[in-house]
Automatic annotation (TrEMBL):
<keyword id="KW-1133">Transmembrane helix</keyword>
<feature type="region of interest" description="Disordered">
    <location>
        <begin position="414"/>
        <end position="437"/>
    </location>
</feature>
<keyword id="KW-0145">Chemotaxis</keyword>
<dbReference type="Pfam" id="PF02743">
    <property type="entry name" value="dCache_1"/>
</dbReference>
<comment type="similarity">
    <text>Belongs to the methyl-accepting chemotaxis (MCP) protein family.</text>
</comment>
<keyword id="KW-0812">Transmembrane</keyword>
<dbReference type="InterPro" id="IPR003660">
    <property type="entry name" value="HAMP_dom"/>
</dbReference>
<dbReference type="InterPro" id="IPR051310">
    <property type="entry name" value="MCP_chemotaxis"/>
</dbReference>
<dbReference type="GO" id="GO:0005886">
    <property type="term" value="C:plasma membrane"/>
</dbReference>
<feature type="domain" description="Methyl-accepting transducer">
    <location>
        <begin position="497"/>
        <end position="726"/>
    </location>
</feature>
<dbReference type="GO" id="GO:0007165">
    <property type="term" value="P:signal transduction"/>
</dbReference>
<dbReference type="InterPro" id="IPR033479">
    <property type="entry name" value="dCache_1"/>
</dbReference>
<dbReference type="Pfam" id="PF00672">
    <property type="entry name" value="HAMP"/>
</dbReference>
<feature type="region of interest" description="Disordered">
    <location>
        <begin position="757"/>
        <end position="803"/>
    </location>
</feature>
<keyword id="KW-0472">Membrane</keyword>
<feature type="domain" description="HAMP">
    <location>
        <begin position="440"/>
        <end position="492"/>
    </location>
</feature>
<feature type="domain" description="HAMP">
    <location>
        <begin position="359"/>
        <end position="412"/>
    </location>
</feature>
């Protein structure tokens, strides 16, 4: 690193170290002061929330005592307890039925029902409910309770499931409400007051609830207890105030177990009695001390906190004010950044001053360095400043002057050496001329061979080199001409063999194509035959299934007809029994008629005797008259019943006749159903036999179809392979046709014809040089020949059509012959094959 850089950097580092030390000391002092300020602010905030909450709770205590002492409250409790026995043995169930279950208002608005309008309890309820509901809405309480001396909740405003229950033996005997009731009812102090801590209260859907209670005394007699359920929303409103606590600070009300009583405004969910704070400072608060410190883990952060105790009645809570440590540290960091900014500005000023001073010191050195660089580049006309200086820089300049003089002396020596070197240059030019001549001969030989090779690369096999080359290079020309002649003969022989391969592969391809076409026709005919057989089998199968279903239905119909006959017989017997019963009833009616007649006669006699008795028999005469009228009505009713039974007997006789006729018709239907079932069974048996025959025929056709399909695939594969061979031969012919041969290439071809082994039985004649092979052949992939397939001969006779014999079998199985037109069509197709 240069001195011009080191000096300013040293000055900057020196200023930076001093500044960093001062900033660090300032930050430590500022952090200590900031911590004290934060704790003081938190303590003041916690104390303010405590005083505000205490005033709110004391107002509830005064309101409860004033309400309990009010004459309206006393009269309401007196009237309700007086009507309490009207509710029966289970008052809670009755009250739930009246004011909850049958209450038309929705849940949470059950208080809108003033009276169920059933008895004196409802009238007493209505008299007090209007006043209590108005008081609840004005003060913001959650609920107001009236509890008699026996522990029965005889009245509530909100009408929840605790209404009507007993706090001594009922389901809510362990709640805070039962706790404050027992304390107040057991105290002899007329100013007794009890309150409970917050806990989950089941009738209020598990919401946190705390209760206060005072006695209701009338004429120095304790009637019961007035209780309030404290309003959580008003407490939450008090502790929702976060003024002066930044973005993370808040105040909380915490019970003795460390559970939050108030809901946190910094979280979206309800935290009351769900979130706990585990910190040692809460234990000190519950002992009555004001403490501060850190809380870790709450809301996932570390917080500065101050806690103070809050006493109300029998309960002690902790009021906690806290703020996030990161937010406090952010203030400290902001102050530190400001200090660092000011220090950086001072460091910059110090660096500028050091830079100016160092430049005045290092400028002569830089000029000397520049002069030395020019001297190193060969410039000896440099101007060296400071030669007359008496300091170290002057010594350095004078040393550079010595190096400049040495460079001048060196250049003079180099000029002398250059004059000696020019004398040997002419000899070097002569040797280079000789090498150029030899290089020209080699270049000519390369160009001639290159031209011949270029013609060979283009397929011209006539490009022999006629012009001899110089010296030993002519041996290359002779070897090239011999190789070209041998290659020309080979290509001519290959051209002739390719033509013969093309002719033979074309013949085989035509034969295989013909075979493939006829095999496809045979396969198509078999497919049509198989399809027709399957359709016929499907129709026979459906007919057989329908016949079997019809036979089954006929059997069921026969069974049902037999059962119907039995039912008709039973109905006839029942009708007969009804007819006999009607006769018996007629006899009983006659007896009743006779009894009525005798009763009427006796009543008449009694009336006569009563008339004879005079004044003493008047009462008996009235009774006799009533008996006579009753006997007459009995006789009239007996006559009407007898007429109805007579008519019923006639109708029963008519029904018996109709049922007998029904039995006769059902018997006739059963016989006919039996005959139908026999015919359907015969049809089903015949259909099964036909289906079995067609299954055998279909299996035979399927086997023939498989064989035909295999033959067709073999023919198609052979045809495809022959087509591939033809394309390969055409491509080879095209490739060979690209070569240009000399007129005497046939002599060379004959010389190599005896040495080749191409797999053919006889030699082929090469194509004439003047007739080049076609060059338009398309490229194709290489393929190998499959086993040869002999073409069809003209003398082969036609084979009898298997499709026709199959159709004859089908006709025999179905009991009918196919049409003559279809037979002719089938013959034509198979005779062609």
């Amino acid at each position: 690193m240069r001195i011009s850089t080191k000096l300013p950097l040293a000055a900057t580092l020196f200023a930076l170290v001093i500044l960093s030390a001062s900033v660090a000391i300032g930050l430590v002092q500022q952090s200590r002061v900031l911590d004290e300020q934060v704790y003081q602010k938190l303590e003041a905030t916690a104390d303010g929330r405590r005083n505000e909450t205490r005033r709110f709770l004391e107002a509830i205590r005064l309101d409860a005592r004033g309400t309990a002492a009010d004459m309206m409250t006393q009269q309401a409790l007196f009237g309700i307890t007086g009507a309490w026995p009207k509710l029966g043995d289970d008052p809670a169930t009755e009250l739930h039925k009246r004011y909850i279950d049958e209450n038309p208002n929705p849940i949470g608005e059950k208080y809108n029902l003033e009276s169920a309008k059933k008895d004196s309890y409802d009238r007493a309820h209505r008299q007090g409910h209007v006043t209590f509901l108005k008081h609840l809405k004005a003060q913001g309480y959650y609920d107001i309770f009236l509890i008699d001396a026996d522990g029965n909740i005889v009245y509530t405003v909100m009408k929840e499931r605790d209404f009507g229950t007993n706090l001594i033996s009922g389901p809510y005997k362990d709640t805070g409400l039962a706790q404050v009731f027992r304390k107040v009812i057991a105290s002899d102090d007329p100013d007794a007051f009890a309150n409970s801590d917050f806990e989950a209260y089941a009738p209020s859907n598990g919401a946190p609830a705390a209760f206060v209670a005072v006695p209701i005394i009338m004429n120095e007699r304790k009637l019961g207890v007035l209780a309030y359920q404290l309003p959580n929303d008003q407490l939450n409103t008090i502790f929702a105030n976060t003024r002066g606590l930044g973005e993370t600070g808040e105040t909380l009300l915490v019970d003795k177990a460390g559970m939050l009583v108030s809901d946190s405004v910094r979280t979206p969910d309800s935290d009351s009695l769900k979130v706990a704070i585990n910190a040692p400072l809460l234990a000190d608060t519950l002992s009555g001390q004001d403490v501060n410190g850190n809380i870790e883990g709450y809301r996932g952060i570390t917080s500065y906190a101050a806690a103070v105790p809050l006493d109300f009645g029998d309960v002690r809570w902790s009021v906690v004010a806290l703020i996030g440590e990161e937010e406090v540290m952010a203030q400290l960091v902001s102050a530190g950044l400001k200090s660092a900014g000011i220090g950086a500005f001072l460091v910059l000023i110090g660096s500028l001053v050091g830079f100016v001073f160092s430049r005045s010191f290092t400028r002569p050195i830089s000029e000397l360095v520049s002069s030395m660089g020019q001297l190193a580049d060969g410039n000896t006309d440099i101007d060296l400043k400071g030669v007359d200086r008496s300091d170290e820089i002057g010594d350095m300049v004078r040393s550079v002057a010595v190096f400049r003089q040495a460079e001048i002396d060196k250049r003079e020596l180099e000029a002398e050496n250059e004059s000696r070197r020019s004398a040997t240059e002419s000899e070097r030019h002569q040797r280079e001329a000789e090498r150029a001549a030899a290089q020209a001969e080699l270049t000519e030989a390369i160009e001639v061979l290159g031209t011949g090779l270029q013609r060979l690369a283009n397929g011209d096999l006539t490009g022999t080199i006629r012009k001899p080359l110089a010296g030993n290079l002519d041996r290359l020309r002779l070897d090239f001409n011999a190789s070209l002649e041998r290659l020309s003969g080979t290509v001519s022989a290959v051209h002739g063999n390719v033509a013969e391969i093309n002719r033979k592969s074309g013949t085989v391809s035509s034969a295989t194509a013909d075979l493939s076409h006829r095999t496809e026709q045979q396969a198509a005919a078999l497919v049509e035959t198989s399809t027709a057989i399957r359709q016929i089998m499907e129709a026979i199968r459906h007919s057989s299934e329908r016949a079997e279903n019809a036979s089954r239905l006929a059997r069921e119909a026969r069974a049902n007809s037999d059962r119907s006959g039995e039912i008709v017989g039973g109905a006839i017997d029942a009708m007969q029994r009804i007819e006999n019963a009607s006769s018996e009833i007629s006899k009983i009616i006659n007896v009743i008629d006779e009894i009525a007649f005798q009763t009427n006669l006796l009543a008449l006699n009694a009336g006569v005797e009563a008339a004879r008795a005079g004044e003493a028999g008047k009462g008996f005469a009235v009774v006799a008259q009533e008996v006579r009228e009753l006997a007459q009505r009995s006789a009239t009713a007996a006559k009407d019943i007898k007429a109805l039974i007579t008519k019923s007997g006639e109708e029963v006789s008519s029904g018996v006749g109709l049922v007998r006729e029904t039995g006769t018709v059902l018997s006739s239907i059963a016989g006919q159903v039996v005959q139908i079932g026999d015919h359907i069974h015969s049809i089903a048996s015949t259909s099964k036999q036909q289906s079995a025959s067609l299954n055998e025929i279909n299996a035979a056709v399927a086997r023939m179809e498989n064989v035909t399909q295999q033959n067709a695939r073999a023919a198609e594969q052979t045809n495809a392979e022959m087509s591939g061979l033809t394309r390969d031969a055409e491509m080879l012919s095209s490739l060979v046709g690209q070569f240009t041969l000399e007129a005497n290439a046939s002599t060379v071809q004959n010389r190599f014809a005896d040495q080749r082994d191409t797999g053919f039985n006889r030699p082929v004649q090469p194509a004439a040089p003047s007739q080049p092979a076609p060059s338009a052949a398309k490229p194709a992939s290489r393929s190998f020949l499959k086993p040869k397939v002999a073409p069809a001969e003209a003398g082969n006779r036609a084979v009898a059509s298997p499709a026709r014999s199959l159709m004859d079998k089908i006709s025999i199985g179905l009991g009918a012959k196919l049409t003559q037109a279809k037979d002719n069509k089938s013959d034509g197709e198979w005779e062609e094959f």
